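Researcher: Go.
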Amino acid sequence: QVQLQESGGGSVQSGGSLKLSCAASGDTRCMAWFRQAPGKEREGVATIANDGRTSYADFVKGRFTISQDNAKNILHLEMNNVQQDDTSMYYCATGTCSVINGVVHLTPSRFGQGTQVTVSS
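Model: Structure:
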């Protein structure tokens, strides 16, 4: 059974940086970060497949980087130049990868408990 535990969230000023981590056990062939702000639907942020292919939502491209330490089964999300719109609960997820028009997508089957990121002006 897959278990996911996020860490690294906190408060950061606009323009700053933060690095999230997710300790995973079980099937970690395809993983992703999602986020959900109050009153909004959960949305995908970044995905990484087991072949290292990555994809990003347009609103984080060039600012966030997803990576995976396979030896330690840890998923990371490096967040740079964060903005107030990035304030959200961030979740890591596992599931099934698919490639559509060269872009990798994850259909999630399990989420972690989440870690809160709050960006202030």
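Model: DSSP finds no helices and eleven strands in the chain.
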